[in-house]
Amino acid sequence: MLAALAKRPTLDFEDALRVILMNSLQEDENTVWQNIVKCESVDGFWKLTEKYYDYLAKEKSLQGLFTLFIINSLCSVLNRTLPPEWQGLVSTKQANCVVFLDHFMHHSVDSKVYDKLTEEIEADLHLGEYLEQWDIQDYEQVDLFQAVDRSIIHKLINSLLIGSEEFTQYREIISLRKTKHYYPEFENYYAALSWAIEMYAFKKKYIAGIPERDALAFFEAYTKEYFIMDQAYSSGRRKILQSSVNDSEVVLLNDLISMTRIELRNTFKGKNVVYIYQNVIDSVGDKGDESKTFQAVEQAFEEIEGAIRNINKNLTEANIYITSDHGFASSMSLIFKD
Fold first, then answer.
1. Which domain holds residue 288?
2. Fewer C-beta within 10 Å: the chain N or C terminus?
3. Would the CA dihedral through 171, 175, 177, 178 be positive or negative?
4. 212-269: per-residue pLDDT in tens?
């Protein structure tokens, strides 16, 4: 009867149940549920949920049933004790609950509906508050909610900003998240974070500065290791931009200057945003030689003006915005006097 009401081709309760939940978790908005009520099959439905999932709530509801699945799936992967208010929902048939939710989450078509339903449950469980209190290691295996990935990314960023240097642990966490349900939604954020970790690790290793070497030795060291810093900086920017803007790209201004007309057009073709980064001033600042700062500023102006002329000459339409991500302070004595 339930399979027929859910318009399913087989007598599979899990399949019918998924269709019922997908319609709505609110009974008064669920057309399949309303048909179950009309056919006086409500008691039979709840008896099947008791049989297969040990759903024994006194006041039963579709939202309560879905919450049962969520809590039991959480319990199976959470590396800590459940909050007291959740413990009453632990089922003696937890494995069945986990299997049902796993099939739903990874269904080739229905997984998008699963994502929407979990957003409804997330707020009711006050999940965000718990994630804020817990350590990442407590929930690093959980992939039931998008909030988990948002929390992990936020905490890893904060750890880097306050100077924590557990880089190996951070890499392991990100590697683990790559296997989880919501990773594709957060892939660019994790990629940008991975590159940031490499930059911080590089900075720690060379806290006293890169040792002076002859040109050949420096070149060999760059190709083996030093390039990581440049690669991380450029790739990190690219991932951050692409996570916010579709069809976008990051290009170093030096690379753009040397492009032919065809190369320039191919780089900009089909792009909504192209971020062009000029690093002359930063490069001088990183070397600690303030005497060359103002010379670098003049060089930056000349290169930017040249790039603008090149773009306007070779591209039919382009809106150009010039911005600075930061200023700089000089400790040099006053240069100009009245």
1. 245-328
2. C
3. positive
4. 778 788 778 777 777 777 666 668 677 777 777 888 888 888 888 888 888 888 888 8
